[in-house]
Specification:
10-stranded mixed sheet; 28 helices; disordered N terminus; globular; 35 strands; 7-stranded mixed sheet; single chain
């Protein structure tokens, strides 16, 4: 019996050689007869575009005017079907590039890292053999000599001679945007096999570096979903599950969005690319993407606003590249557009990072088809191969533009680098971090600086004049203690230093006007991403901007985890609670069966002072192997373990055997996920649990089964509906700790909810009383006592200052209509000032009574008595980013983090993601405390018999 493959092949024209035009006279759109069920069972499901239907496939040749060496294997020979007609696997892409590197002197292939799942990351250097022979010499001398100070193409060409331009072509950083990587597969072959001048000329004048698959783990995840949901019958519905399902393939293994990871490099893929790209310092960097399936094709120039640290020539070059790309697209009558929504404000994208390094950063977005044809609203059908072709045409056009303007692009790159090294305006400024109680975060920062190639030093002392701190505090002259970290702006990475560390860059007035108009008229924002991101606030470090002077040479502070730990036989052992690694140690030791206490007061032991919420392990409560266990846990966590010989305090602080030390319980954590949950929020939480804390956890697809196996359940954004179950309410009241993040908190609010916290919109008649309660809480314990007035009876009752203001009494002016209007101004991502209750266990390690926190959206939470971290009053609220006065009014004095006892359990609510994008280390500590300390500190657990 004939197979379906034979039927398909017999009904379709023979597959032509690669690059040859297909005969388009056969326009029949009727599918071949479907085989019987028995025949289908014996025939593999075809993948990708259906070759039997011209209406559902694309037969235009990719390179109609080019010739290619037949000795170089074609993509068809590797894939077994027309190149670009299906999603190639990462293994197939690697195999092709390895084959071409071995077959041609034009390509050399280099590994630069591995993903979390162990897949190799590679880049291919493609140029003429002659350029390969002198590449190392050219890279070493690329900045020698002078270039004209002003644009002069002939003078630039004379100054730069025959130095080639470097173009870095990156594809598929979002794994479920696969056409980019399939275009890279075809482009690699074209550049290696092409024999006509359009290829050989490029390779004489350029060094082309292709990173064909930026996100192998995400690509394989979506590729597996596409194969698993494929069928014999073609589906053109853009919304079909045949095009993927949660968690799709956008992020890496932990679902981190790597196109927003360039600021701190949370992902190993980003760290590898930092090193690789900095080695070549390309003058052009292309970042190939996809967007919604019903769209067309977007490419740069960007829309405003533009970050002030981007080179001034960037927009002009983007327009020039766009003009040439548009001409290429016009030949195919493809629809496209520029400047509509991809703005240049957030500096953490791939192309922005490249531009801050002096390159011309370019991005394009092809409408997504996900490996099979899609029918658009107009009725037009776009095949996968056509979407791949769009990426390919864009890439070839960009390379041709770069070649044509080689000398001018090289010269502008040099001028941008020279300008950065000079420091520009306020060239003497520096970003400074003072040594303190957060050495682990400082170590992470230094790792980022090294990865980014930023110059820095540790000083033995000096002065910082005109100092401005992260909370807006100013000091005319600040003495820098030994161990202070100084990052100057006058360096080749000066643009990056300013872009990633400046506290509060301001959007241009014209952008504010456009944004305000869009919000007021259409309830929609033009901001494509967050408006605040700086590392100093995200890490919550004691940091300043200012002008350093009189600096002396110093050394980096010693990491406490490298001082060595003492696991000798002792009365007890202590771990400093200020350390961010303390929860990591506790989670590990509790999993080993060690009994650990958390102190609620500062205490003195072994000649040292330990802060509130330090960890205590008593020898007599543990078995004979406890010394080895705590030593192993301390070494694994990277903390200093201090051995004590007595439980008696040498001063007025608590003795070590009393009621100021609470026994912790081993956390048994479940993380909710699945359809409906935010992949980003889920991924950030998962990464924190698995990588930062390294603690055991179970991922649940919704609430199911026996929840008694867990004593902590974490709900990411999007999981509100899951939290309304009676089963969960019983679990919390029975002693469980529920942690809800962002929009998930809505699932526990309201009359039927577990929490007494309310949303601003649901308590408009009581907002005044909530704000009065907030003011009382913020002022609690700060007023001096008038002892004489107390004993004489003349002291007035406290609280008069916190009464409800007349303006706040009853319903707010305008009521529900006004609040609905104000909600539309919720920020797209800002950093706000929050007050910390430093006596609450969940704030252990915060180190201060204020901290910067990330916030986005329009949900403001109101709480009276359960607030551990609360936003400050509106006047002092904003630290960084765009915050309209309407949002400021609603968010001021609202709750960021609440902890409520519910029966024997507790509910912990975060108003926004505490581990946003994996790098907000300040608020990440609060989450660590909730996860590790929560089961023991905030619940009532039965004493075992």
């Amino acid at each position: 019996m004939t197979s379906i493959l034979a039927l398909v092949l017999s009904s379709a024209p023979a597959l032509p050689a690669f690059g040859q035009e297909i005969d388009r006279t056969d326009t029949a759109e009727t599918a071949p007869p479907l085989p019987s069920p028995r025949e289908r069972a014996a025939t593999p499901i075809p993948q990708g575009d259906p070759s039997w239907s011209p209406a559902l496939s694309w037969d235009e040749p990719f390179f109609p005017n080019s010739q290619h060496d037949p000795a170089i294997p074609t993509p068809e020979a590797i894939l077994g079907q027309a190149a670009g007609s299906r999603v190639a696997s990462h293994d197939e892409v690697l195999a092709a590039y390895r084959l071409w590197a071995s077959a041609s002197g034009r390509m050399k292939l280099f590994p630069y890292g591995r993903t979390h799942e162990g897949r190799q990351l590679v880049y291919a250097v493609i140029t003429s053999p002659e350029n390969h022979a002198r590449l190392d010499e050219w890279l070493a001398s690329r900045f020698e000599g002078d270039v004209p100070a002003e644009r002069d193409e002939q003078a630039e060409a004379d100054a730069l001679g025959d130095k080639p331009i470097v173009c870095w072509m990156g594809y598929g950083i979002h794994g479920d945007e696969p056409s980019a990587t399939d275009a890279a597969l075809i482009l690699g072959w074209h550049l290696v096999a092409g024999t006509s001048e359009d290829v050989t000329g490029l390779l004489d004048d350029m060094v082309i570096v292709i990173d064909p698959c930026l996100n192998p783990d995400g690509r394989e995840r979506i590729g597996t979903q596409l194969r698993q949901m494929s069928g014999y019958v073609t589906n053109t519905d853009y919304a079909a599950m045949q095009r993927g399902r949660w968690p799709y393939g956008r992020g890496n293994h932990y679902l981190i969005d790597m196109n927003r990871d360039w600021v701190t490099g949370v992902a190993p893929e980003t760290r590898g690319r930092w090193r690789a790209i900095r080695q070549f310092e390309p003058q052009v960097l292309v970042d190939g993407h996809e967007m919604g399936p019903l769209d067309t094709f977007l490419f740069y120039p960007q829309s405003p606003a533009y970050h002030p640290q981007l080179p001034g020539t960037l927009n002009g070059w983007q327009k020039r590249f766009a003009n040439d790309q548009a001409t290429a697209f016009d030949r195919y009558q493809w629809a496209y557009y520029t400047r509509e929504w991809a703005d240049g404000w957030f500096p953490g994208y791939s192309d922005a990072w490249a531009s801050l390094n002096g390159a011309i950063g370019l991005l394009y977005e092809q409408a997504r088809t996900l490996g099979q044809p899609v029918k658009r609203a107009s009725g037009e059908v776009v095949s996968y191969r056509e979407s791949v072709h769009g990426q390919l045409v864009a890439s070839v056009a960009n390379l041709a533009t770069a070649r044509r303007h080689r000398a001018s692009i090289l010269a502008d790159f040099r001028r941008a680098r020279d300008e950065a090294e000079s420091g520009g305006e306020n060239a003497d400024e520096a970003f400074v971090v003072l040594p303190g109680d957060k050495p682990e975060r400082l170590a992470v920062l230094v790792d980022v600086l090294d990865g980014q190639g930023m110059e820095y030093s540790f000083t033995g002392g000096g002065t910082l004049t005109g100092a401005v701190g992260r909370f807006g505090d100013t000091v005319d002259s600040l003495e820098l203690p030994a161990g202070s970290l100084v990052v100057p702006v006058a360096q080749k990475q000066g643009r990056l230093v300013r872009a990633y560390f400046e506290f509060d860059p301001h959007l241009p007035t014209e952008t504010l006007e456009r944004e305000r108009r869009e919000l007021e008229r259409n309830d929609s924002s033009l901001m494509y991403d967050v408006t605040a991101w700086n590392i100093g606030m995200a890490y919550d470090l004691s940091c300043y901007w200012g002008t350093p002077s009189g600096l002396t040479e110093g050394a980096a502070p010693v990491d406490p985890g490298t001082r060595g730990s003492s696991g000798r036989t002792a009365y007890a052992w202590v771990v400093d609670g200020a350390s961010d690694r303390a929860p990591r140690f506790a989670a590990r030791a509790l999993e080993m069966g060690v009994q650990i206490h958390l102190g609620d007061r500062p205490f003195t032991a072994a000649g040292r002072s330990f802060p509130r919420f330090s960890l205590l392990v008593r020898s007599h409560e543990n078995g004979p192997s406890v010394a080895r266990l705590v030593e192993d846990a301390a070494r694994w966590a990277g903390v200093e373990l201090v051995a004590l010989d007595t439980g008696r305090s040498p001063d007025e602080s608590p003795d070590l055997g009393g009621q100021h030390f609470t026994l912790l319980a081993r956390p048994r954590v479940a993380l909710l996920g699945g359809e409906g949950s935010s992949t980003g929020s889920f991924g950030h939480l998962w990464h924190h649990l698995d990588v930062r804390l390294g603690m055991p956890h179970t991922i649940l697809e919704g609430l199911s089964g026996d929840l008694r196996r867990y004593n902590v359940i974490v709900a990411p954004e999007g999981m509100a509906s899951e939290l309304r179950s009676g089963q969960l309410r019983d679990w919390v009241r029975g002693g469980g700790t529920l942690i809800a993040v962002g929009s998930a908190v809505n699932g526990v609010l309201g009359e039927e909810g577990l929490s007494d916290v309310v949303r601003h919109r649901d308590a408009l008649d009581e907002v005044g009383s909530y704000r009065a309660a907030a003011r009382r809480a913020l002022a609690a314990g700060t007023a001096p006592i008038d002892a004489e007035g107390l004993w004489s009876g003349e002291l007035e009752p406290a609280g008069a200052d916190f009464d409800v203001d007349e303006d706040e009494a009853g319903a707010l002016p305008g009521g529900e209509d006004r609040d609905t209007w104000m909600r539309r101004f919720g920020p797209s991502g800002v950093i706000l000032r929050a007050h910390v209750d430093d006596e609450h266990w969940v704030t252990a390690g915060a180190g201060s009574d204020e901290m910067p926190v990330f916030f986005e959206g329009s949900t403001a939470l109101l709480a009276k008595d359960s607030c551990a971290v609360r936003f400050t009053a509106a006047a002092d609220l904003r630290l960084s980013g765009l915050l309209w006065p309407e949002a400021r009014e609603r968010i001021g004095l609202s709750a960021y983090l609440t902890v409520e006892r519910v029966g024997a359990g507790q509910v912990v609510l975060f108003a926004a993601d505490p581990v946003f994008r994996g790098y907000y280390l300040g608020t990440a500590r609060l989450l660590s405390n909730a996860l590790v300390y929560g089961p023991g500190m905030g619940t009532r657990t039965a004493v075992p018999r």
